[in-house]
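Help needed: design a sequence for this.
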């Protein structure tokens, strides 16, 4: 039978990344929520044919429109994902130092 040895505190895993500044974390969380919303709008069919006059660039311009709409949705309060992402980014791991 294998003996289980205690894990010495001096070899505890230490965080490898620095803590994010709150403003940077909030901005990143909002961008992540906006990107998610833009993808959901795309999946829902927003911006398919009919929004523009058609043609070669319609898909590209529709994506810009979806992203702009998603950004506005986040600025208006979004669906709450940004706050969840922000809290997750600001958590500090419970690590023994």
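Sure. Designed sequence:
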């Amino acid at each position: 039978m294998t003996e289980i040895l205690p894990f010495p505190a001096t070899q505890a895993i230490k965080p490898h990344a620095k803590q994010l500044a709150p403003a940077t974390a909030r901005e990143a969380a909002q961008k992540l929520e906006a990107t998610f919303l833009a993808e959901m709008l795309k999946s829902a069919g927003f911006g398919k044919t009919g929004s523009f006059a058609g043609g070669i660039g319609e898909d590209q311009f529709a994506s810009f429109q979806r992203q702009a709409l998603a950004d506005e949705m986040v600025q208006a309060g979004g669906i709450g994902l940004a706050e969840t992402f922000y809290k997750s980014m600001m958590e500090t791991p419970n690590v023994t130092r």
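The mean pLDDT is 80.
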